[in-house]
Amino acid sequence: MSEDLIIDLASDAYFMGQALREAHKAYAAEEVPIGAVVVREGEIIARGWNQVETLRDATAHAEMLALTAAQNRLEDWRLEKCILYVTKEPCPMCAGAIVHCRPERVVFGCPDLKAGAAGGWINLLESNPPLNHRCEATGGVLEDECVELLQRFFREARAKTAARRHRDSGPDAPLLESP
Ligand SMILES: [Zn+2]
């Protein structure tokens, strides 16, 4: 991280809280609970929550929807002076889109060591060259809250699947089946 970049940790936490509110909308819609907001000069200009199932669109990640909304709001694809806040580290698709839109920074909640593209698995945001824009990445903001919501979602999804299998197999079937 460059030293000339002023990072206000209090406002990072505030805006991540706003991204978490979006993640809760996804949770309520039984989507993987990830949320995002785009902030420009201290103002939220766009919001998004994961809507892959709702829109039947594998590209409808929270970041993609928030980026598109921000570009519409600014009437410009260049997201100058913008910061993207997202509750989970962006995947390679979103990181690629972020670099094309050129926000100054990306702030994420929990890292994704398996598939994250902001340093967890690979780092597309801060690699330059070959990409023509470099985005500062800050992770770990409200990490516990972001992880907890995701863990709760997957725990409940597993329980629902187990209950459905149990019901479909009849009342005498064991609750946990072998795969
Ligand atoms: Zn993504």
Describe the structure.
The chain has 179 residues and is an alpha/beta fold. It has five helices and five strands, in the order αββααβαββα. It has helices at 9-28, 52-55, 62-74, 92-101, 143-168; strands at 35-40, 43-49, 82-88, 105-110, 136-138. A five-stranded mixed beta sheet has the order 2-1-3-4-5. The longest helix has 26 residues, at 143-168. The radius of gyration is 18 Å and the shape is elongated. The N and C termini lie far apart (45 Å). The mean pLDDT is 91.
Secondary-structure blueprint of this entry?
Elements: H1 9-28, E1 35-40, E2 43-49, H2 52-55, H3 62-74, E3 82-88, H4 92-101, E4 105-110, E5 136-138, H5 143-168
Parallel strand pairs: 3-4, 4-5
Antiparallel strand pairs: 1-2, 1-3
Helix pairs in contact: 1-5, 3-4
The structure holds zinc ion (ZN).
Produce a short descriptive summary.
This protein is of the alpha/beta class and 179 residues long. The chain has helices at 9-28, 52-55, 62-74, 92-101, 143-168; strands at residues 35-40, 43-49, 82-88, 105-110, 136-138.
Q: Count of DSSP helices?
A: 5
Q: Which structural class matches the secondary elements?
A: alpha/beta
For the CA atoms, what is the radius of gyration?
18 Å
Query: Which segments are poorly predicted (pLDDT under 50) over 5 or more consecutive residues?
Result: none
